[in-house]
Amino acid sequence: MKHALQDMTAAEFRDRLPQNPVILLPLGSQEVQGPHCPMGDFTLTAGIADAAARRSGAVVAPCLPFGYAEFFRPFPGGMQLRASTFRAVIRDMVEAFLDHGLDRILILNGHSSNAALIDETLRDIRRASGIAVASIDLWRSIPNELWTRLHGERSDEARGHGGDPITSVCMYLHPERMRPELARPSARGKAFGLPMSGTGGVTFDGVPVNLPLDADEVNPDGMIGGDPALASAEIGRAIFEHLADHCARFAVHMAASDPRNPAGPVGR
Fold first, then answer.
1. What is the CATH number of the domain that holds 251?
2. Is 198 part of any domain?
3. How many Cα neighbours within 13 Å face the side chain of 242?
4. Whole-angstrom Cα distance, residue 110 to residue 47?
5. Does pLDDT of 196 surpass 70?
6. What contacts 75, CB < 8 A, 6 or more positions away?
7. Number of domains composing the chain
8. Contact, 259 vs 132, CB < 8 A?
9. Once rounded to an integer, what is the mean pLDDT over residues 191-213?
10. Does some domain include residue 220?
11. 222 part of a folded domain
């Protein structure tokens, strides 16, 4: 049985409607990942979503390759959606399935900056339709225990934009696209003479102060954190397997849940 919506004919998908399958909606981004990684990290989300669909019996929709990331606009080759555009696209994607009675929808978000807008949009959808759509932030779904097992005491050094998890997963899925000879350590700049804590602000007297910074101000290579020298294809495989399995198990659980009554009993 086919699991990817893009590979199905309209007749084949129509035959699946009575089953009310879980629909996976993968979201990614096209943005700088440092000088060593390809910009199209949406391919990683698509790969994880595809594996999760195969393992769970869900149907996976085509991946949305663009996300919300205003702070990456200074880098050429990136393609960002405005907040209003992103919310509208997510709503249209979800309602394309709700319109046909498919109400078990799971968003697999491969771009962390999307999270707040996804939550806002899904709350609006629930108020309008009564249906609770679930979402999983992929890169935030890697438990600390796994980070420690893979990187030991250097897990904090490895994690961050330009480092892991993206670098290792890309080394596993697309090694031919990597440019490891261009990798370099992350070094953050200062704003107002204070250390930057990322694109969200600075640290003053040991506590964060919010400040709208662009990624090129933090680091000219878009390296916001993480040491790519600590990445490996083996680590990428472990992360990929964890995320694909985690998403698949939740999709199976969701298939037995009622999106119109999420606080009710589980059992289809």
1. 3.40.50.10310
2. no
3. 20
4. 11
5. yes
6. 31, 32, 215, 216, 222
7. 1
8. yes
9. 94
10. no
11. no
The residue range of the domain holding 98 is 5-143+240-255
Contacts of 71 (CB under 8 A, 6+ apart): 113, 199, 212, 213, 214, 215
SS3 per residue for 112-138: HHHHHHHHHHHHHHHHHHCCCCEEEEH
Task: Summarize pLDDT for 221-236 with one digit per residue, the tens.
Answer: 999 988 999 999 999 9
